[in-house]
């Protein structure tokens, strides 16, 4: 993750920045899974190494 990406993600805590960029941050396994199967365009997914390790996957295709 680049410094610019970190700054962008942090800025998205502010409503004005979300509106300006047309982006939002989604957190949590369930929400991320729902977004991946929705009509919304997922721009990027940032995850901790091993996030899905040990979890059973229903439709974990990104």
TrEMBL record:
Gene3D superfamilies in alphabetical order: 3.30.1330.30
Disulfide bond listed as a keyword: no
Molecular functions (GO terms): methyltransferase activity
The MRM3-like substrate binding domain, residue ranges: 4-53
Biological process, per Gene Ontology: methylation
Keywords: Methyltransferase, Transferase
Protein name: rRNA methylase
